[in-house]
Recover the amino acids of this structure.
């Protein structure tokens, strides 16, 4: 059996770690570099193959120590998810996502997951988990292979990240030998390319990688603003004038300045796409594999390939390309809207409090009062629900632990306010109030201490453009922790783009 | 002839205005809030055409406090705060102009969403926006009376 691609990736990463150790250098630099390798493997493969790299990190260095702590906490979430699944309880997906937000899964869990999926008749997922398990060359490989061989639908509760491997292949149907010989290889290549390209399309990748949404939304915003709005947008007027044979010399010059002067159109386009591709860590060109971008590139190339002076028939052809790029702009707008959006309501706050209170340490703190709400109607933030829960749970956990040492009555309140910004935007403020006089050190959120959870909070705040502030409070509460995120922009376009 | 003040960090809006709006407006140009204020104090200006993003503007020219914005909105991330101020600079400049008592109609070439547009009108009075550089629509937006 050939080793899996991700296994090869992990092996290369491990080799990298050994090389790093052998090459010397300062331990801090080695620690940092090893961590980067391990983190990159997780971001790129997103599955158990990265676990080896994380587990191999030196636990005496700060990064390694942090990674091992994250692995331990993530493992609790993964085990919790498996228990929930085993006992047919809801929340499997959420628990898995909480684990994924922290670190890779221990590949040993794949065998358990595969067997549970097989029991429930989710064949393709079971196959997927068996393959991921076998890719790690485990001790029980022979037994797992036997089980895999015996497998031949059900509701799938697992997040997309666990669905990377392909579904089981159907048995090929018999066909004439000559046709197989002639067409088989060609069809196979075409099929492979088609499947590969579909998997490499932006929409598909975004569906599998919600953690990319924020960054991609930003880069698509830049592409729309810099290229489509400023460079391409103003071309319509002069092109229409030329098409009507009524253009002035100034309008010809205006077109020439935008199409033939400065950075060539093709390079400006590529620079924007390159920034997007780099932000996602992909090695292929989106405008080669994604039909949406491929069509836009063709239109852009038509605009960039003209003879001067532009004559009316040419202007009509260029106007069609211009219209295609404006349509592309609208499609990007639709793509971006709703990538990462979470409705905020009292049910979410209650879920956060109940989930935090169900933890052993937090649950045993007696509270005299917990107030939840109010939440204004129609509040939405561009934050993954799982990440928002993680942030709020950490803040609530800290508040409960803080009031544990405070005199009674111990009170806690969680509500939401919407604050207008001078830019016309709005901020959603989650307010966690408590009666503990001891202030939470807001500076602590700059660290990466998983024990206190503030490292995770800080990472999420930076990922989603949020902030955390501690302020003195009134109405019998000693302090309030304010978590701010921008309110989602409703409607047909994304604000980043303009 | 009416006088149009174009406020942008580059020259695309001004070029567009000179080419397509010169027959309708006398064009004035400012590249930062201080220049716009000086122009409004020294010249008669009837309407404002404002770019929203000032990507090329340096921190010293921007309206807004990068450090305070970083702390309040971006978990201390100064770089992100700077980008935010650049991205929203047109509106922040308009806020400065309104604070200084200049209430001229302001037009943006920008696809503001309805909720934000409502907020901008509530905050800054006569504000209009167009999604693209459409000459006829822009002329209507600039020439309409509030």
């Amino acid at each position: 059996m050939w080793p899996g691609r991700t296994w090869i990736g992990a092996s290369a990463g491990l080799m990298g770690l050994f090389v790093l150790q052998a090459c010397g250098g300062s331990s801090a630099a080695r620690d940092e570099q090893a961590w980067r390798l391990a983190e990159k493997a997780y971001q790129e493969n997103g599955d158990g193959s990265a676990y080896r790299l994380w587990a191999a990190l030196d636990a005496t260095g700060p990064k390694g120590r942090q990674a091992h702590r994250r692995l331990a906490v993530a493992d609790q979430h993964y085990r919790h998810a498996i228990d929930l699944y085993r006992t047919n309880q809801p929340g499997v997906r959420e628990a898995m996502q909480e684990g994924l937000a922290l670190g890779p899964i221990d590949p040993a869990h794949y065998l358990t997951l595969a067997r549970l999926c097989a029991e429930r008749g989710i064949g393709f997922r079971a196959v997927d988990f068996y393959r991921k398990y076998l890719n790690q060359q485990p001790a029980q490989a022979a037994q797992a292979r036997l089980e895999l061989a015996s497998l031949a639908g059900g509701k799938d509760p697992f997040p997309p990240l666990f669905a990377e491997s392909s579904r089981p292949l159907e048995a090929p149907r018999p066909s004439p030998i000559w046709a197989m010989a002639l067409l088989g290889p060609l069809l196979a290549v075409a099929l492979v390319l088609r499947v590969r390209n579909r998997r490499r399309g932006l929409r598909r990748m975004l569906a599998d990688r919600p953690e990319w949404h924020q960054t991609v939304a930003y880069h698509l915003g830049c592409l729309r603003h810099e290229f489509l709005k400023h460079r391409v947008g103003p071309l319509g007027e002069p092109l229409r004038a030329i098409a009507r044979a009524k253009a002035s010399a100034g309008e010809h010059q205006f077109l020439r300045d935008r199409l033939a002067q400065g950075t060539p159109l093709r390079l400006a386009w590529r620079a924007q796409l390159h920034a997007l591709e780099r932000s996602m860590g992909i090695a292929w060109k989106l405008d080669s594999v994604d039909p949406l971008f491929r069509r836009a590139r063709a239109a852009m190339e038509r605009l960039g390939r003209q003879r001067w002076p532009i004559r009316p028939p040419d202007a009509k052809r260029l106007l069609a390309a211009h219209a295609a790029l404006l349509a592309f702009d609208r499609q990007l707008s639709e793509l971006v809207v709703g990538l990462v959006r979470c409705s905020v309501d009292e049910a979410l706050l209650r879920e956060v409090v109940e989930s935090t209170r169900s933890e052993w340490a937090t649950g045993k703190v007696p509270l005299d009062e917990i107030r939840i709400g109010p939440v204004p109607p129609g509040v939405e933030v561009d934050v993954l629900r799982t990440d928002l829960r993680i942030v709020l749970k950490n803040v609530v956990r800290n508040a409960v632990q803080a009031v544990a040492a405070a005199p009674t009555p111990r009170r806690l309140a969680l509500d939401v306010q919407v604050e207008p910004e001078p830019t016309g935007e709005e901020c959603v403020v989650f307010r966690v109030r408590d009666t503990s006089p001891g202030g939470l050190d807001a500076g602590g959120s700059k660290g990466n201490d998983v024990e206190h959870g503030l490292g995770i909070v800080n990472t999420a705040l930076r990922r989603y453009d949020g902030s955390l502030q501690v302020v003195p409070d009134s109405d019998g509460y000693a302090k309030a922790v304010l978590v701010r995120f921008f309110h989602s922009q409703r409607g047909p376009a994304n604000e980043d783009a303009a | 002839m009416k006088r149009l003040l174009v406020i942008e960090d580059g020259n695309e809006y001004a070029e567009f205005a000179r080419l397509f709006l010169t027959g309708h407006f006398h064009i004035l140009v400012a590249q930062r809030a201080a220049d716009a204020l000086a122009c409004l104090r020294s010249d008669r200006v009837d309407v404002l055409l404002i770019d929203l993003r000032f990507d090329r503007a340096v921190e010293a020219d921007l309206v807004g406090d990068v450090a305070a914005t970083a702390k309040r909105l971006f978990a201390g991330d100064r770089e992100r705060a700077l980008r935010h101020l650049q991205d929203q600079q047109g509106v922040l400049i308009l806020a400065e102009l309104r604070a200084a008592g200049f209430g001229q109609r302001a037009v943006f070439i920008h696809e503001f969403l309805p909720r934000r547009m409502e907020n901008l009108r509530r905050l800054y009075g006569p504000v209009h926006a167009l999604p693209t550089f459409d000459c006829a629509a822009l002329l209507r937006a600039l020439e309409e009376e509030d």
